[in-house]
Amino acid sequence: MALESPWIESFMVGDLQMRCSVVTDLSTGDTIIIDGGGESERIISWIEEFQGIGPNWSTGPQNAEEMHEYGISKRKVVALVNTHAHYDHSGHIPYLLERYDVNWYLHEDDYFLQSLAKVSGARRGINLPEPAIATHKISDEQLLEFGNISLKILHTPGHTLGGCCLLLDISDGPDHLFVGDTLFAGSVGRTDLPNTGGDFEVLSNSIKTKLWPLDTDTIVHPGHGPLTSIGIEKQTNPYVGQSGQNTGGFIGKYL
Ligand SMILES: [Zn+2]
Ligand SMILES: [Zn+2]
């Protein structure tokens, strides 16, 4: 099944303003949280009560009344999924797992990195709980289905060993792609971070072989910074796009 008219919210959280994406099926209330890296209380308050600061960007209801108009009374969190395990993307997973008794999906090649989340946060003055352990491995080409929410996993190493992009299948409009720190509007993820397996050649190859073949109107949700599309980046990205000149010695922009 594919999702119709998706309700997608971006919460830019934590010291690195990381994008936590919340996707809800408006016909059932089923909800998944992608990259629960920080500000979990803010996200939980909004998902459950529409209380507090709310998302930075949303395609759906802004309050309970609007949500009821779609025929759902409340949202039900059914899974946590991660693009990769850097602490800004995974630091608050333990708090979310405390609140929601659901599975957490992560690529196995990032399990070691995940075990370092608390230490990495502390190095930057961020206090995090003991890291959680993913309940389920994800792998390339795997299809994760939660009701009508269908996510195709694209393993795109280069920023981290286990980095993945998550393709959300939409029935009545462009698909949405959650890319973590693999690709940004006008940039790509850092490849110089310790304990991470970053490699620019690998990253560039992942993007060119796994992302460029997707529909050009696919909406890209990077882990940091603004939304973009496959078409725009394929043409104009200075590092991996068709007009890109910069191929060597580049270490990327974000954690
Ligand atoms: Zn990041
Ligand atoms: Zn990262």
Written overview of the protein:
With 255 residues, the chain is α/β, with parallel strands linked by helices. It has a single domain, classed as Metallo-beta-lactamase, Chain A, CATH 3.60.15. The protein has a seven-stranded mixed sheet with strand order 4-1-2-3-5-6-7, covered by helices on one side. A six-stranded mixed sheet has the order 8-9-10-11-14-15. It has a two-stranded antiparallel sheet with strand order 12-13. Strand 1 and strand 2 form a beta hairpin. The two termini are 34 Å apart. One zinc ion binds next to helix 3. One zinc ion binds next to loops.
CATH superfamily: Ribonuclease Z/Hydroxyacylglutathione hydrolase-like
Largest sheet: 7 strands, mixed
Spatial order of the strands forming the largest sheet: 4-1-2-3-5-6-7
Shape: globular
Radius of gyration: 17 Å
Return the CATH class. Alpha Beta
What is the averaged pLDDT score?
94
What name does CATH use for the topology?
Metallo-beta-lactamase, Chain A
Number of helices: 8
Instruction: Estimate percent helicity.
Output: 10-25%
